[in-house]
Amino acid sequence: MTSLPEIPGAPEDPLRTAAETMRAVRERCVWSQRITHRDLVPYLIEESHEVIDAVETGTRDDLREELGDLLWQVLFHAAIAAQDTDDPFDIDDVARTLTEKMVRRHPHVFAGEVAETPEEVLVHWNAAKAAEKRTRTSVLDGVPPGMPALARAQKLTGRAAGAGVTVAPASTAAAPASEAELGDALLSLVATARAEGWDAERALRERLRALEDDVRAAEAAS
Length: 222
Description:
CATH class of the largest domain: Mainly Alpha
Shape: globular
Oligomer: single chain
Number of strands: 0
């Protein structure tokens, strides 16, 4: 394994060394100096998908590397934020905020509450989350509009059910006669996935991988 770089003043802590490495890159690399939060978004999306691919199809080494690349994005955003003139924060502030939130959301671990099943854990989690989000006026608040459409549809059908609005699961495979009917059919399929506890986005990804295998096999045979 490659040894960690020598970063002046960095303590003997791999995470701290990574943060100090990022700070040095931000300060000394002319490309990194010009990058903004908005500039990093495409890289964050790409690295997130590479982690997903490593989880679903990669090796342990792949996963370790891709998690590191995703962590680098977090460190990069924090390094940019630390230089903000109006409202700066750094990676320690990010970690502190995260720790405080996770402690609040796990009262069965840190505050003497009891949760003996995953369902009971979710009760505590959702109660804590609801208390944190009192300013929200809709169950739809907090669902990112930039999520992939299938994943967002599955998230929204769950939120909608909580508000008493349900989408009927797909019952037939009738061919849509219009784009609007296609949208209805897709949403019904997503509702089916949610009802069955399936991940619609992952199901399509795995089917696409099978399609890619078929295409490559056909190309190799031609």
